[in-house]
Write the structure tokens for this entry.
Amino acid sequence: MDTALYSVGYLAIILLGFVGLRPFDKRLAYRFGLLFVGYLVLDDFITGLPYTFDVFDLNPARWNWAGKVYSLVFAAVTMVLFGLNAKATGLVLPQRNVKTGALALIPLILMGVVLAMVHQPPPPSGETIAFQLLMPGLAEELAFRGVAPALLLGLLRNQDPPDRTPWIVICIAAIPFGVVHALSYSGGAFGFDLSQGLWTASGGIIYGWLRFSTGSLLFPILAHSLTNVAFALTPLIVP
């Protein structure tokens, strides 16, 4: 029941975000907005399957390895079903602005260090470092900066993305990225960590800019993964 209510709350916020920002780019069709919302709600549910049903918890470790793998498989299935090509989802090498993308990694990684100094996480295990390096950046960037924006832009049946940077699409996709890291539901009440939501949504806008300015998911994945690792490793470097 908690999972279902959480999903309803998540769906409502994403839908409101789309409806609220769509007037700034009326080229975005409602039918594609519904695809966008539906995909992200299903992706969140699928990612959480190991926590909801024991049968899906194939790797009972601390971190949700199985859920991230399910998310990647769901993204691949969605790409095939809707005919999303590699360019539409950013699964190509950077096409332009390579130096800008590489330089952007530096302040983002440093921000991970700063956040760790503020929040003071415990020293990481080997599993934590491996998971943060390999899974969230890959699965979440493919979902939030790859497949979801492609659906919102209507890039179905092998259409290529626009050359322009679709800022409204980037902002719409950043909302669920922030919400999924901040929203919770337990004991009959919703919870929302505003600072976590704002920080993550801001990161989502930066990652979205990297994805469309370079034409590739490579730099968003690197930025996400390396920032997470920097956050995890900081307690070992800074007492």
